[in-house]
Amino acid sequence: MNFLSFHNNFEEYHKHPFTISVHMITVLISTIYIYQYIGVYNNIVTLLYTMMLFIFGTNYKLSISSMLMIGVFTSLRRPISTFVFGMSIIVQYLSHVLMKEKTMISSYYNTSSFIKHYTSHLIFTLPSIIHLCFQKVVFPSNQILLDRIDSLTSRKHLINWISSQIDGKDQSKTTHWWYNNLDKNELLHFDILNDTVMSKIQSKLESYKHIQPIHQMNEIYVSTSINNKYNSDNVFYSKHIDGPFYLFPFCSVKRVILSLNNNSNITTIFPNNNIEHMLTNGEFVMFDFNRDIHYIESNNVFVTEPRMTLKLHYVVYPRVIYYPAMLLKKLNVMYDKNARDMFLYTLQPNSLSQKFMSCVVNLSTNLTYLTEQYFGITNLLLAIPLLKMFY
Prior knowledge:
This protein has helices spanning about 5-10, 15-35, 40-55, 60-75, 80-100, 115-140, 150-165, 185-205, 235, 320-345, 350-375, 375-390; strands at about 145-150, 175-180, 210-215, 220, 250-260, 265-270, 275, 285-290, 295-300, 310-320. It has about 400 residues and is α+β, with helices and mostly antiparallel strands. It has 2 domains: about 5-140, no CATH class; about 145-375, Jelly Rolls. Helix 2 (about 15-35) crosses helix 6 (about 115-140). The longest helix is centred in the first third of the chain and has 25 residues, at about 115-140. The model has no long low-confidence stretch (mean pLDDT about 90).
């Protein structure tokens, strides 16, 4: 038995958000139903189950998620009748029928290894459905998209314009031009590239999702070629998450890094996805602004032309939750403006206050990343109600 091989197979039979959501509810009902007959041994059983998950290769954060989820819902002490338990199994099956997805049990029902597969099914379903529900439905994350566009004329125009605005010999700091401050001609070419990227993303989204640009967050960005640990640019070279709204459910703000010119110096890295890519000449990467851990690495060599990129932003949401998505959009715009002012203030820290705020920027970024990387922000969310019960 191995969690990873089970989960990869489990995911093949649970793709649609509706199926995943229904299973999350029915699995919790089944868990509460079983636990109400365990009685005083609840905590011991939960601890042994968590250890079993870990031993059989379940990611330790998912093992903790399973333990916390059991703790939260069994502590509600709401008895589940046999009728409700039975109905949950029927509803679970019907969700597959409605979404035209085969059940996983149908893949091994008539095999000689039925007992082995079914045992894995019983043990690993809870962490698997937690993972799918949190990562694909409630808090969409780790869905990195790498692609490219052509639009050579618009890219060349912006490359030439940027080159006329900067000193190519000074590659010690980043340079930014915000979308709302661009001239009409640059805006025209920016919009062409933005629309092309958005069209590519839309074609890869599920049919029930919609995408809308967030122009207020967009910018032209020129990278520094050398990592300077004494200013706020160091954040980009450290593992980090860009935004603070991880726990805003069901919709996402996506950031796209679009490479305008040739790049042979800076690599973009997503450690949780084992993705490392040196974006160049029209290539782009899309990730979640508020959830995906990433950073860049530089070869620390002087190049004739620094890396020039567009930072593009979109809110992606199910069509039925338009107003919450617009709230998320507004919150991210407000946060990005304040963060932008702070970064610019600490870009070349000379005064004591600038140096202090630079430390604050880097420290807060590292704390967010460390929480997600080593414990999980969703686990922190689950732990809060349990802590309240003890204090």
